Amino acid sequence: MATVKNRKRQSGAPLHLGEGANPSSEVVHFGDGAALPLDSGASLTPFSVAYRSYGTLNEDKSNVVLVCHALTGDQYAANKHPVTGKPGWWETMIGPGKPVDTGKYFVLCANVLGGCMGSTGPSSTNPETGKPYGLAFPVITIGDMVRAQMRLLDHLGIDDVFCVIGGSMGGMQVLEMAANHKERVFSAIPIACAARHSSQNIAFHEVGRQAVMADPEWRGGRYLDEKTSPSKGLSVARMAAHITYLSDEALHRKFGRNLQDRSALTYGFDADFQVESYLRHQGSTFVDRFDANAYLYLTRAMDYFDLAADHGGNLAAAFKGTNSRFCIVSFTSDWLFPTEENRAVVQALNAVAANVSFVEIETDGGHDSFLLNEPELFETITGFLSSAARRRGLRFAEAADAVF
Amino acid sequence: MATVKNRKRQSGAPLHLGEGANPSSEVVHFGDGAALPLDSGASLTPFSVAYRSYGTLNEDKSNVVLVCHALTGDQYAANKHPVTGKPGWWETMIGPGKPVDTGKYFVLCANVLGGCMGSTGPSSTNPETGKPYGLAFPVITIGDMVRAQMRLLDHLGIDDVFCVIGGSMGGMQVLEMAANHKERVFSAIPIACAARHSSQNIAFHEVGRQAVMADPEWRGGRYLDEKTSPSKGLSVARMAAHITYLSDEALHRKFGRNLQDRSALTYGFDADFQVESYLRHQGSTFVDRFDANAYLYLTRAMDYFDLAADHGGNLAAAFKGTNSRFCIVSFTSDWLFPTEENRAVVQALNAVAANVSFVEIETDGGHDSFLLNEPELFETITGFLSSAARRRGLRFAEAADAVF
Question: Any catalytic annotation for residue A367?
Fold first, then answer.
């Protein structure tokens, strides 16, 4: 962490900016004539989609697993992160012999539209001004993110995916793709998500946005151009959000009221408690790898998500005609996307007689459980994918098949 | 509200400052020779306790109900607030014929030590410098707050209280008084609280403090002296906290995904959703009536609260020897101080064979239920107080006695 901070101070600019302009991953540029129509009515041109792949695409391109990342994730799902140097955010899930087995599947993960790791977002250059978009970037939706990913599939000549999988905002993309690009989805695994963002979740996001916008260094979104950094505001936003990703039980188990490197209360405002120190760390490291405006745009996209809205509030209608196989996963201690929200998706799918299985996993890990070492999650994904693979007639080399 | 805002702009200083220096309520000044010893080891001198009373003290001073306010409350429990012009924060509970019946009881409510409505706090003048204390104010505890209230009772010649009652941080004071000033408590009603602040609650408080401190106008706590105002940071802190006072269900019931004065999404960062508009209002009105440093100090006092800590972690030991009658109240949808936390107090009291009743009230109102129109809460308090009054041999005029 110290090294990271030093690097930031030396360069004078957040570390992720280099990645945003010139990602370590593959990137596809869609130029004029390939404008992306957006739900707002605007269209975006040019735009880029940065992505990473893992494993090998088979001959008939039938083994694609599209991984959709969450709010602050990116395309580096299963390899070292180019900014933080940490392992990929889903290395527990993706890799040789892992549930999403790169010995079997061709795994694709794209940075979302509106993000800051190489796909076009508010920190990208606005062709009309030659400066970073800032708030001139159009507000995007989960539908727009998925539309950009479909362009990536087109570019790679992939008609459909064997599976689309993701948690949280990633799960929203899974649901969006399954509902609005049905023919491209053989199977879908939305984890810890909802078909619409709740009032409480909108409220927490709004607090985060207000924290960013309250930072005078945000400068109405023009901080990149003005060479300032709303890192304090973004750090507060991350701290507030981070609490919602955990559970009361997990916080109690991990930290309780334990003191941080001291034997008694100091009667001051330093981080006396471990949980304070932990949160401050979460906030301060986040700002090195994430763009404040991207945080505004992506939280807004989640807030706007309401899959049933285009169907008169009837969620089942959104899935009518689906031939995809679904595996819905929720976690008992997830209070951000509680089981009821996930169950509402199951009920909608049942109402259109879709092929759906539903697993609620008992854990105290909270919303972030989909990123943690949760054996029941791994077993669930492994089993579902194996079954779906048999159904699709996928054939794998023997060694890979025997891993689980 | 508009008037309030105009007044603030005209004066150039937060409205509460006048109240802090010269409260509309009674105020007792404790001068040299009456220094208040604090849990930190420091002592405070001089100090003031501002309070309001309602009803009439009987001849033997046996009908005192001490009301302890919550984090952002004050002494104006049952009369118009001098800054906001709104009704007192507990007018549902306190008044003629109400559960805490001012026709029967002499109700006392003091602004807590560390507050900003007339009792000594960080916005008070530091006698050593002639300037506002700011961060030179000593960190105080719930124990210190109660100690200041005991001085007020001494000053008024009140040996003991018929009842001490309060919710949230007020409930913590109730527990503190019942544990550490046992002989002064005939009965106690701690509502929606806990004998120690949880890791999650410390975490939320830390976010709020960081939001305040991240505001460059906070100026290391010297904003009053430097004539700035960390209102943006304090507003964000209030917004985050406010979400925790409600429940997911209540937010869904009140706001859902309803839009604010518009028929469609605007694809921007204005408050599209009612819940956003509501939260922004909560944040912006709060800063007119509350001092940012007081917010830091009072949240810190709550974080430090751990009644069992002085008894080797044995909560029952804190109550050993109590002769008080207890009524513990929790709310099903309160996720900040969930029923289990309240039940832990009940169990500790049972372990020392205390006289305790416990009511968990079914409501979707969340933590703030103690401030809302909750008939079961009113019935509970009325019944408990009537029973306790009979036990104490209190006699009331017939009319008042017949109200319930």
Answer: yes
B216 touches chain A (CB under 8 A): yes
Judged by CB atoms closer than 8 Å, whether chains meet at A248 and B198 is answered as yes
Query: Each residue of B174-226: pLDDT tens digit?
Result: 999 999 999 999 999 999 999 999 999 999 999 999 999 999 999 999 999 99
Structural domain contains residue A234: no
- The per-residue pLDDT for A398 is 58
Interface list for A 298-317 with B (CB within 8 A): 300, 303-304, 306
Active site residue A387: no
The helix/strand/coil state of B401 is: helix
Q: Look at A335 and B335 and tell me if their CB atoms are within 8 Å.
A: yes
pTM value > 0.90: yes
Q: How many CB atoms lie within 10 A of CB B390?
A: 10
What is the pairing mode between strands B100-101 and A163-167? unpaired
From A204, A233, A338, residue closest to B214, measured CB to CB: A233
Question: Looking at CA atoms only, how far is residue A400 from chain B in angstroms?
Answer: 43
Residue in A closest to B42 by C-alpha: A267
Q: Is B318 exposed, middle or buried (0-12, 13-18, 19+ CB in 10 A)?
A: buried
| Separation of alpha carbons A146 and B254, rounded Å | 31
Report d(CA B287, CA B294) in Å as an integer: 12
Asked if the bond preceding A37 is cis, omega within 30° of 0, the reply is no
- The 10s digit of each residue's pLDDT in A325-362 is 999 999 999 999 999 999 999 999 999 999 999 999 99
Write out residues in chain A with pLDDT < 70, as ranges: 1-15, 398-404
Whether residue B335 and residue A338 make contact (CB cut-off 8 A), yes or no, is no
Assess contact for A166 and A328: CB atoms under 8 A: no
Cα A191 versus chain centre, distance: 11
Question: Is A255 near chain B, with CB under 8 Å?
Answer: yes
Which parts of chain B register pLDDT below 70? Answer: 1-15, 398-404
Query: Judged by CB atoms within 8 Å, which residues 365-384 of B form the interface with A?
Result: none
Which domain range does residue A340 map to? Answer: 17-196+308-401
**CA dist., res. B262 & res. B232, Å (int):** 26
Across chain B, mean pLDDT equals 94
Q: Is residue A387 part of a domain?
A: yes
Q: Is the CB of B280 inside 8 Å of chain A's CB atoms? A: yes
The nearest CA of chain B is from the CA of A210 a distance in Å of 7
- In whole angstroms, give the CA distance from residue B51 to residue B44: 19
Out of A101, A144, A367, A368, the active site residue is: A367
Structure-token match 């009842």, residue found: B163
Half-sphere exposure at residue A185, Cβ-oriented, CA atoms within 13 angstroms? 30
CATH code assigned at A82: 3.40.50.1820
List, in sequence order, every beta strand (DSSP E) within A262-380: 325-331, 355-361
Tell me which chain A residues have a C-beta less than 8 angstroms from the C-beta of B215: 214
Based on its alpha-carbon atoms, the radius of gyration of chain A, rounded to whole angstroms, reads 21
CA distance B183 to B178: 8
The active-site residue, picked from A101, A215, A303, A334, is A334
Q: Report CB contact under 8 Å: A257, B203.
A: no
Q: Cα–Cα–Cα angle for B139, B145, B147, nearest 5°?
A: 115
Tell me which residue has tokens 């003048």: B125
In angstroms, the separation between the Cα of residue B376 and the nearest Cα of chain A is: 26
CB of B85 less than 8 A from some CB of A: no
- Pair A192, A94: CB distance under 8 Å: no
B112-156: pLDDT as tens digits: 999 999 999 999 999 999 999 999 999 999 999 999 999 999 999
Rounded to 5 degrees, φ, ψ at B157 are: 70, 30
Identify whether A7 is part of a domain. Answer: no
Count how many domains chain B has: 1
Burial classification of residue B43, based on how many CB atoms lie within 10 Å of its CB (0-12 exposed, 13-18 middle, 19 or more buried): exposed
ipTM: 0.93
